[in-house]
Each structure stands twice: as C-alpha cells, then as structure tokens.
Design goal:
Shape: elongated
Number of helices: 13
Structural class: alpha+beta
Largest sheet: 5 strands, antiparallel
Strand content: 5-15%
Number of domains: 3
Length: 374
C-alpha cells in the first residue's frame, strides 16, 4: 500500500511549477463541488422511495469517488505521497486496516442510504391511510432509524474485533442506574408509545386534559405541548396525560353547544319556542344537520328556562364563541321585537296575616294572672 501511495509523486514531476499545481488543485475541488451539487439536484428530482434510494447510492458513490480521487491527486501533485506513505508505515496501517476503514465507511454509508429508503417505503405504505397519523409515521421512522444505526454500530465494532461482552455488561448496569434515576422520564416515554397507538388526539385537536384546555401543537415521545386560548404554551408530560381524563372536542369534527335563556312565567311557551327557532334558523355558524333543539328545562326562580342546543362543525374556541355570541344576539333581538320578556332575578316581599302579631310569653301570662287574684 505504501508503495502505491508513494508512486503518486510522479505527478509532482510532471507539474513542477506552483501555478500548475494550484490550477490542478482548484480544478479538482471544482469537480468535487459539481459532483456534490449534481447529487443534491438528483435527489430533489426523485420522490419515489426506491428511486430516491438508488439516487442516494449513486450520489454517495460519486461523491466518495470524487473525494478519493481529488485527495490522491492533490497529494501527488504537491509531492506529499512519500510523506503520507511514511506516516502510514509508522502508524502500522496496512492493507488489512485500510480495508477495514473502507468497509466501515461503506457500511455507515449503506446504513444512511437504507434509512432514507426505509423512510420512503414507510411513507408510501402508511402515508395515505387514515388510520395512521403523521405523528405515528414520524415515530415509526425515528425508531427504525435508531435501530438501524445501532445495528450498524455493533457490526462495525465486530469488524474491529472489539469485545462486546464487557460493553454489554456495562450497558446493563448503566441501564439499571439510569432506569432508577429517570423513572418519570421512562414513564413518560412508555406513556408516549401508548398515546401513539391509542391515538386519543392528534396535532391540531381541541382537547381538555384534566384542568388544561387548548389546541395540541406538538406531540413528542416524552411530552405533549398545548397552546391555551390565552396564548400560552403548556408542556404536559405524557405520563400525566395518560393518567387524566381526556376530552377531545375535535374528534368527531363537530361539537354541540348549549345556550340557556329564560322567559317570564306569563309567556306562551310554544310562541317563545317558535321565535327562538326562527331567530337561529339562518345563522351560518350553525350546522343544519343535526337540527337545533329547543327544550324547556326547568322552573327557575324568576323564569321558565329554555335550553337551545345546536351543533358547529370544525370546532375551535373561536368558532364556539362566535356561534354562542350570534345565538344570544339573535334571540335577544327576536324577543325584543316580539315583546317577550327575559326576566332578571328578583325577590317579592309580602305580608302574611298574623305574621307580626305579639306573642305573650308564659311569664307575662302568669304575672297577669297573679295581679288579677290580688
């Protein structure tokens, strides 16, 4: 190997001048840049998983060959081949070690290309299905990526005859220590996998988790991020998410809302119901199917209470408040036009006969009796 490398010094004899050597060096670097740019453009033109993997392989091989050739050319042109060969001899790097290095580089490059190919396959097989969300695709890809890189790393250690028994024992002890020290983190990770497969909510859903309510902005393997309606971002560990009651208001794509309104006891209830139904019939914020319902609920302190039940689609906090606001405004205007009174809480004080009469105590009655006897 050293003799082959030392033979590159013949290039220095053919190009003895500084200008020629500099020109060749710049030309070689330009070739590497062009090859790298072409490989990048080639990857951008292909969207198919198999084609993307093939372009990765071709591009990586082209870049590796251009780098190898450029390095050898620059070493030979500048007359440093003998120096490199001597350094390799001193480091006792022979053909076997160089082969291992090349094999290691090839294996790592192959792992990288296979990961990209696997990403394309996962996207093609699962990307178009409603049962698999983008978050689940991302988690599946990341887990596969880590597994492939770990496997490639173990194979590389085997190439270099590294004893894995001590490494595995140390990893077991370290894993036990880390598992004891990071119980909550591990619980969040396991809960993250549970949430990933059970899918109680997805990014963009309007959820209520315990006392927290907002829009899910991000889901990781450890935590869930929620943007509240006050504009705050809250990060909730997944173990707390899985242990609380989850109310997903966006799951079915629609949400039923309720608005209560009371009328005076003297009001004709059928007429009031008809006025309410007519008032909200043309509101664009409300769904036509299911149709709104108006139900008499109870006798209030000062009124007979109605509950107006209606549905909105694509539920969000803004759509909820807009729908409620529109319903309240329209019912108020309709009642005002029709002369229907919405009573406010009031109390009526009345006097009952004999409520304020003086009641004699037994002592007073006894004193009056004694005085009469004297």
């Amino acid at each position: 190997m050293s003799e082959v490398i030392a033979g590159l010094d013949i290039l220095a004899e053919q190009y003895p001048t500084f200008g020629a050597r500099l020109s060749i060096t710049l030309l070689a670097l330009a070739v590497v840049s062009v090859v790298s740019w072409g490989a990048t453009r080639l990857r951008q033109w292909t969207d198919d998983g198999l084609q993307s993997a093939m372009t990765d392989i071709i591009g990586s091989l082209a870049i590796a060959c251009s780098l190898f050739g450029t390095t050898a050319l620059i070493i030979g042109v500048w007359g440093q081949a003998s120096t490199v060969a001597f350094a390799l001899d001193q480091a006792n790097i022979g053909t076997d070690a160089l082969g291992r290095v090349l094999l290691t580089i090839g294996l790592l490059m192959g792992a990288f290309v296979f990961v990209r190919f696997l990403n394309g396959v996962i996207t093609e097989l699962l990307g178009g299905r409603d049962a698999v969300s983008e978050h689940e695709l991302e988690i599946t890809y990341r887990i596969s990526q880590v597994a492939i890189y770990i496997l490639a790393f173990l194979v590389v250690l085997g190439f270099w005859n590294v004893d894995l028994s001590g490494l595995l024992i140390g990893a077991g002890v370290l894993g036990a220590v880390l598992g004891f020290a990071a119980q909550q983190t591990l619980a969040s990770i396991f809960a993250g996998f549970v949430l990933m497969f059970s899918r109680p909510f997805e990014i963009g859903d309007w959820v209520e988790i315990g006392e927290q309510e907002g829009i899910v902005s991000d889901i990781t393997i450890v935590s869930t991020r929620i943007q509240t309606f006050d504009g705050e971002y809250m990060i909730v560990p997944n173990n707390e998410v899985s242990s609380r009651t989850i109310n997903n208001r966006s799951k079915k794509g629609r949400l039923r809302l309720r608005v209560s309104v009371g009328v005076d006891y003297d009001t004709d209830l059928d007429r009031a119901e008809a006025v309410i139904r007519e008032a909200i019939a043309d509101l664009e914020q409300l769904m036509r199917v299911p149709t709104p319902q108006i139900v008499v609920t109870e006798f209030g302190d000062s009124s007979i209470d109605f509950e107006v039940r209606f549905w909105i689609d694509k539920p969000s906090a803004r759509r909820r408040w807009r729908a409620k606001q529109s319903v309240i405004k329209e019912i108020t205007e309709a009642f005002r036009r029709e002369g229907i009174t919405i009573p406010y809480p009031q109390r009526e004080l009345s006097e009952r006969p004999g409520a304020f009469e003086t009641i004699e105590s037994p002592q007073d009655a006894s004193a009056q009796t004694d005085g009469g006897e004297e």
